[in-house]
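Cross-check.
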Amino acid sequence: MKHQLDFEKPIIELQNKLDDLRQHPEKHSLGISFEEEIKLIEKKLAETRRHIFTNLTPWQRVQLARHQKRPYTLDYIKLAFADFQELHGDRLFAEDRAMVGGFAKLGEHHVMVIGTQKGRDTKENILRNFGSAHPEGYRKALRLMRLANKFGLPIVTLIDTAGAYPGVAAEERHIAEAIAVNLREMTLLEVPIIAAVIGEGGSGGALGIGVADRVLILENAYYSVISPEGCAAILWKDRANAAKAAAALKITAKDLLDLKLVDEIVPEPLGGAHTDHAMSASNLKTHLLKHLEQISMLSVAERLKLRYEKFRAHGHFVEKIDVEANSIPQASAA
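Predicted model, tokenized:
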């Protein structure tokens, strides 16, 4: 099986054994019937899958978020939305295919859907710049969001990027300024905005389309200021400590929900979103519709107020004061 992860090996072995037995029934044990042996292996397979995927480490979830068979933005647009009409270009410099967007229907709602898009093979990854948008990608996203605001259309953003493109060309065209403007402008848009982290949510590249009334995250996605490898390289001077960094960063869906950095976790099929694209899209659509209907009931003033307060509340910290170091020495008697 291609793209298998290390922790999936026991599942793959049992699945291969089951497939082999079905194709060659003469190999089954003589002590029990063929049907009984099939049922035993199926039971063992289900138990193994459940045990592995309910006890994943943060690093294993990062690996699932990067799985090459995982549904990407255009997959979700195809399965969860209807009547998608893609729009191109930032009207300033160029078309960035790492950022896609356009008009679509979500249920009965006309929306503007925007998201970062990766590729599955070398040719597509080059076309999509590995899902890392240039400044023109973020300026295109802002153009589409302003267009949605003009026509009163809710905005849905799908986040799946390791980060904005960090190359010289991006710096020359002011990537930081493009993202900063998006952050400012998204706080002021009057229409409902929902963001969903569907895979990787890396740094400012993710946040550049992530300021929203509601932020959702798929069960095995992650959202972080830096990749585990980047954090490990800085703190431990060795990218081999990525698993340790992933645990320390608190970047999994459950951690983020506990920290109130996301609003809800969207469940995935057991085994990850890549095992059932249709079910994953259905789950995402259900949650998007639920939140869209909730925030659409708010007035514009209330929606903007809550959106501002939501992001102002991020970044709490606790300061521990060293009592002994800060104590005032007592004067001694002469």
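The chain has two domains: 7-55, 62-312. The longest strand covers residues 193-202. Passed to J.P. for a second look.
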